[in-house]
Amino acid sequence: MVTNDIRYIGVNDRKIDLFEGQYAVPEGMSYNSYVILDEKIAVLDTVDGDFKEEWLANLEKAVDGRKPDYLVVHHMEPDHSANIVSFAEKYPEAVIVSSAKAFNMMKNFFGTDFSDRRIVVKEGDVLELGEHKLEFTEAPMVHWPEVIVSYDSKDKVLFSADAFGKFGALDSDEDDWACEARRYYFGIVGKYGVQVKKLLEKVSKFDVQTICPLHGPVLKENLGYYFGLYITWSSYDVESEGVVVAYASAHGHTKKAAELLAEKLTENGCPKVSLIDLARDDMAECVEDAFRYGKIVLCSITYNGDIFPFMKDFINHLTERSFQNRTVAFMENGSWAPQAAKIMAKMLENCKNITYAQNNVKITSALSESSIAQIEALAKELA
Ligand code: FEO
Q1: 146 Cβ below 6 A of ligand 1
Q2: Cα–Cα distance between 344 and 332 in angstroms, integer?
Q3: Would the CB of 214 count as within 6 Å of ligand 1?
Q4: Model-level pTM?
């Protein structure tokens, strides 16, 4: 139960390995759905297609013999929209409520846009349920263009769609919200900070006391903490002091140099060093750390006249998510024609507000007196 009149009817997915086909979710995933019970009954979003029966049973139990009047669709991504047709068939008198763009998507996904039983809503429209009134706010690109969020002024609840979501099923033991919420945020909407910020500004007029996202726990206490993190993330601001040392190494020499740099950074008093093996560590965790901390050292070998594929993939993940406002240093290794630093710098050239370190590191095959001195100088500069 979220409030007296608002029930949770979502499901936990413990079988999923890759969310959206790419994000490892060892603690599973929740697909949240809610019901508001008033003179009229509104169901808010459906769940993933694999959970149709469970969800419909949850819904049936929540409405306790009554029939839903509305299905509000905040977001059309299939993890939330897959059961719209099943719902519409089971409750033929219910009306579907969503944005114009979402109805276009329904036509493409399901072959129908429910033209005979729908309400198209836009910014500021209100759906009256009785005491509860749902006011809609458009949230384009948080995470798709059709997204709307809604605010229930009676219980002061924000139904925030993907915003404020996180990886992990609701029955997982994981209790650090920020860790998996951050990885989710930068993976899913990291590119759209401007749009997320705009949404935060728009909903700031509401007296939000509870956030009901489409993934992860309902948030009821200390909401300033969650809003604060979302402001930091959507502004691409540094969240924590620290240095990320991300390496891509073929035979261990670049790895050894990266480890030495991490050690020297710690010796020099750096509050946090995140040492990352780009070939083995979870890529979404690596991306998360790059956006969390203020400084990053990119360490790559030269490979096929380019950089090592894992580093290339990593930098692409950063640039396509509008990586900015950070200090960057390079460590390159090359046995005959080192050019990784030049290539990495070129890949970052369109990123805004990047400060490049004075000291970079050049390794020719293995650590030498000269490259160790460069590592010491870089550690001093960054710490
Ligand atoms: Fe949870 Fe963008 O879907």
Answers
A1: no
A2: 9
A3: yes
A4: 0.96
